[in-house]
Amino acid sequence: MKSGVVLMTDQPNEDFLHRLADLADAATLPRFRCTLHVSSKEKPGWRFDPVTDADRAAEKALRKALATAFPDHAILGEEFGSEGSGRFRWVLDPVDGTRPFLCGLPLWATLIGFEVDGRAVMGMMSQPFTGERFWAGPDGAWTARAGRRERLRTRDVGDLSQAVLHTTSPEGYGPLSEKLKRLMAKVRMTRFGGEAYATAMLASGYIDLCLEPALQPYDIVALIPIIEAAGGLVTRLDGERAERGGPVLAAATANLHEQAMAVLCRE
């Protein structure tokens, strides 16, 4: 045993996802609402794309644990890039929502995804300030807080006119702005800026659509199994699976996804 993580030769289980989340929480939570060293990365469409000590420390902790437990698995992380190859890959976003993190808003989360042959099969989202976790694996999608575990289920509002839409800041939409405006005109209500937390609320049955204009794999891989196991559907706007990122739409039901795609993709 090394660093509290047992060496494994098979695929991960739910307990291992929670152990990884514990490591990330220990790196992020003490730094939340504290003075941080902040720098900015290059990101098309954005003037400021922040990265902090919390992002780097959490990803380092996760990579160290994975190298011990699954040394043959590949890793893709937002802060330190890609390493390794093969059928099994971990996809990490140590702090998804660095902007709300900097603003003291508990809408950020650590995302830990696991792919087999390019398909997301397990995912964990941890928000340690609120004490919530959302995850999915072979036995479905779940959430837990204060020791209480519940199964996640999306809701079915039936028609687009009754749907709640969530998206990121309009700042990142660029040429997709007109598509967003068309969809906003069709739904009941639109809210902005909830990051991965909004997707968790879709899986929990409080939001019906999440539209994102330009995701990276580390933004979405962990969330795909959670959405799907809760009853939702998530794809790119070209209809392909969402593991490689890009413009992505998540919907609470296949019917609502079809309705939204008809609005978004018409010429």
TrEMBL record:
SUPFAM superfamilies to which the protein is assigned, alphabetical: Carbohydrate phosphatase
Transmembrane segments: none
Gene3D superfamilies, A to Z: 3.40.190.80, Fructose-1,6-Bisphosphatase, subunit A, domain 1 (3.30.540.10)
InterPro entries: Inositol_monophosphatase-like (IPR000760)
Source species, domain of life: Bacteria
Family: Belongs to the inositol monophosphatase superfamily.
Name of the protein in its database record: Inositol monophosphatase family protein
